[in-house]
Design goal:
Layout lengths: L5 H14 L3 E4 L4 H14 L3 E2 L8 E4 L13 E3 L4 H4 L4 E2 L2 H12 L7 E9 L8 E7 L2 H10 L1 E2 L1 H10 L3 E6 L9 E5 L4 E5 L4 H4 L2 H17 L2 E3 L1 E7 L5 E7 L6 H5 L11 E6 L3 E5 L5 E4 L4 E5 L9 H5 L5 E4 L2 E2 L5 E2 L30 E5 L16 E9 L9 E3 L3 H9 L2 E3 L11 E3 L12 H10 L9 E5 L19 H12 L5 E3 L2 E3 L14 H7 L4 H16 L7 H17 L1
Parallel strand pairs: 1-6, 3-19, 4-5, 4-10, 7-9, 9-11, 14-23, 23-27
Antiparallel strand pairs: 2-3, 6-7, 6-8, 10-11, 12-16, 13-14, 13-15, 16-17, 17-23, 18-22, 19-22, 20-21, 24-27, 25-26, 28-29
The structure holds guanosine-5'-triphosphate and manganese (II) ion (2 copies).
Function: Catalyzes the conversion of oxaloacetate (OAA) to phosphoenolpyruvate (PEP), the rate-limiting step in the metabolic pathway that produces glucose from lactate and other precursors derived from the citric acid cycle.
Pathway: Carbohydrate biosynthesis; gluconeogenesis
Subcellular location: Cytoplasm
């Protein structure tokens, strides 16, 4: 088979000449194709079958133990001009990068099959959707791309109609970490990734295309590609508000997107539109309209349970791929935080021994179609997307940062997003629990200079714009006993309700230099068992502590040099001034 699009055929030929595969397979996205790939991987040992009685059509993949997370130090943005990549990215000159990585691709598919994977990010008939083609030698990648994107014939037809597509070339190579690179060429709409089979490094539609390349395109075309969940909050009266929220990796997006309101909220419903990526565009009405470019979830397994995320658990008992989880004695998937069952085999396939650390890798993941999610919104397939009422930023902060506050206006909100800090997690390799700035949760994903990105955000504030209100949340405040003060999970509904009430108007707030905080009486806290002192802590604004935080934020903004927008600097000076005056 080949395509009607010469440019695509030529590129496939060119890649085949370089990588020398034994076979070429054009993916049609069919069920039969998926089953054949599964059979193949069961034969090669890439997958093992989980208990078909409890988990029909569920499979376990164990990755190489040196290949379990995104690798930010090996991820490059190769723009022509180094300044366009910014200090927030590793940069390499495009010619050098091509040379370096093509040398690793030479002959790397000998004995393997080259899969051509046409995919569409977003509903197939959506004007906001964009297409790409990934070439990969990994059947695991093909199977995951079929769940995570609209993959196959329909996508190829759209690509042939449009004539353009993002090119992604991937090979697992020999998995040698010294020969691993994830490179982006935004001006060429091209991605090249070698040496890793792991999710964010290998499923190129996700972080590489839908965030790094798309953010670059979005800036040129006047829209936003963000690391955000999208949910709809429906009141008992049937009114729905859509909210987008950016939290760094492993900080609660998937959990919040699938929230089930607690008993104190009869008749309320949370609808899931997306759990990781949001593409938003100003509509003719001035509002931001958002789609989820993905079709599935690649979620963190540990901590997912019937009590923390019942919707996720309900979709994980069939038709799912598990990566690096543990297994029970009767081949059921298992991870830390799951009260049922116990591990017999750990994520590396060894007999479970607590001396070896956790049974499931802390960044072990499930891949599952979004259609299986009980809270999946019918509006998720709407080609126009959904209108966003509120944007929420948040991170892991064990001290200082209150449960929730609202920015005064758009430019203050952009500062709040740019200033985001979070303690690092296991989703990327490196130390865990270290505070780092992660503007808009996009530090690992913005495909261009953060200073230009801040300017782009500010530029959306046009005369006719009806922009969402901007909020900041923190579920991770710890008490003197070292435990989380806020119960979180389903109870985050109480914060969502306040946010939506603020958007609707008619509920007051407490003004502070860092923004607007809830009045205690406006938060529905019944049934939480939260003491007065704990509530005080959650809503406290420590002016001296914030003055120090703002000094740090100032240094961070300076680190982008002259490209940092003056408006952001002024906003920073305004808040710092108010903090200083209040001491
Ligand atoms: P990526 O998929 O990597 O982008 O991350 P994510 O933001 O989707 O993270 P996810 O929802 O999977 O969160 C994972 C971790 O956050 C788990 O350890 C959860 O237990 C924890 N978590 C999520 N929500 C809450 C909450 O409200 N409170 C507390 N304390 N922990 C939470
Ligand atoms: Mn993510
Ligand atoms: Mn997630």
């Amino acid at each position: 088979m080949a395509s009607k699009l010469d440019a695509l055929n030529r590129w496939v030929d060119e890649v085949a000449r370089l990588t020398q595969p034994d076979r070429i397979h054009w993916c049609d996205g069919s069920e039969a194709e998926y089953q054949a790939l599964v059979e193949l991987m069961l034969d090669t040992g890439d997958l093992s079958e989980l208990n078909p009685a409890t988990h029909p059509n569920c499979y376990l993949h164990r990755s190489n133990p040196s290949d379990v997370a995104r690798v930010e130090h090996l991820t490059f943005v190769c723009s022509r001009n180094a300044d366009d990549a910014g200090p927030n990215n590793h940069w390499m000159a495009p010619e050098e990068a091509h040379q370096k990585i093509d040398a690793l691709f030479a002959g790397c598919m000998k004995g393997r099959t080259l899969y051509v994977i046409p995919y569409c990010m977003g509903p197939i008939d959506s004007p906001l959707a964009r297409c790409g083609v990934e070439i990969s030698d990994s059947p695991y990648v093909v199977a995951n791309m079929r769940i995570m994107t609209r993959m196959g014939e329909a996508a190829l037809a759209r690509i042939e109609r449009e004539g353009s597509f993002v090119r992604g070339l991937h090979s697992t190579g020999d998995l040698d970490p010294a020969k691993r690179f994830i490179m982006h060429f935004p001006e060429e709409l091209t991605i090249k990734s070698i040496g890793s089979g792991y999710g964010g490094n290998a499923l190129l539609g996700k972080k590489c295309h839908a965030l790094r390349i798309a953010s670059w395109q979005a800036r040129q075309e006047g829209w936003l590609a963000e690391h955000m969940l999208i949910l709809g909050l429906e009141s008992p009266q049937g009114e729905t508000h859509y909210v987008a929220a950016a939290f760094p990796s492993a900080c609660g997006k998937t959990n919040l997107a699938m929230l089930i309101p607690p008993a104190a909220y009869p008749g309320w419903k949370v609808w899931t539109i997306g759990d990781d990526i949001c593409w938003m565009q100003p509509g003719p009405d001035g509002r931001l309209w958002a789609i989820n470019p993905e079709a599935g979830f690649f979620g963190v397994a540990p901590g997912t349970s019937r009590s923390t995320n019942p919707n996720a658990l309900a979709m994980l008992d069939r038709d799912a791929i598990f990566t690096n989880v543990a297994e029970t004695a009767d081949q059921q998937p298992w991870w830390e935080g799951l009260p049922e069952g116990k591990p017999a085999t750990d994520w590396q396939g060894r007999d479970y021994d607590p001396a070896n650390g956790p049974a499931a890798h802390p960044n072990s993941r499930f891949t599952v179609s979004a259609k299986q999610c009980p809270s999946w919104s019918p509006r998720a397939e709407d080609p126009q997307g959904v209108p966003i009422s509120a944007i929420i930023f948040g991170g892991r902060r064990e001290s200082l940062v209150p449960l929730v506050f609202e920015a005064r206006d758009w430019k203050h909100g952009v500062l709040v997003g740019a200033a985001m800090g979070s303690e690092t997690t296991a989703a990327a390799t490196g130390a865990v629990g270290v505070l780092r700035r992660d503007s808009m949760a996009m530090k690992p994903f913005c495909g261009y200079n953060f200073a230009d990105y801040f300017s782009h955000w500010l530029s959306l504030d046009k005369a006719n714009a009806k922009l969402p209100r901007i909020f900041h949340v923190n579920w991770f405040r710890k008490g003197a006993n070292g435990k989380f003060v806020w119960p979180g999970f389903g109870d985050n509904m109480r914060v969502l309700e306040w946010i939506v009430n603020r958007c609707k108007g008619g509920v007051g707030a407490v003004e502070t230099p860092i923004g607007l905080l809830p009045r205690k009486e406006d938060l529905k806290l019944a049934g939480l068992g939260l003491g007065e002192a704990e509530l005080e802590l959650l809503l406290e604004v420590d002016h001296a502590g914030w003055a120090r935080e703002y000094a740090g934020i100032g240094e961070y903004l300076e680190s982008f040099g002259a490209r940092t927008p003056a408006l952001l600097q002024q906003e920073h000076a305004r808040v710092s001034g108010e903090l200083a005056a209040s001491l």
